[in-house]
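hey so i finally got around to running the thing on that chain from the lab meeting. sorry it took forever, my laptop kept dying and i had to restart like 3 times. anyway pasting the input first so we r on the same page abt which one it is
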Amino acid sequence: MDETLPPCPECSSEYTYESGALLVCPECAHEWTPEPPVEDGVIRDSVGNALADGDTVVVVKNLKVKGSPTGIKAGTKVRNIRLVAGVGDHDIDCKVDGIGAMQLKSNVVKKA
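ok and heres what got predicted. didnt touch it at all, straight out
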């Protein structure tokens, strides 16, 4: 067991493991993205890389989007992001191809 991984938020199992950018619980099969630590107001992606305006990011999990039949699939590249701290829990302004302008949470993207 890796001491640095948090327990499962669903069943509190201590046997979580990493699978790509996600954490997985082998007991209840719950998958989640770890909350990156926020230090000195720096916005970080799902694996802890610092993000900056103009970066390109990749979505790490499928996202449902209101008004879109398909949503955003994992692996979708989003170019030229803009960071906007303080807008709820969504801290990235961007334009997604095929969807349009929207806001994303930094914990569902990984720096490309």
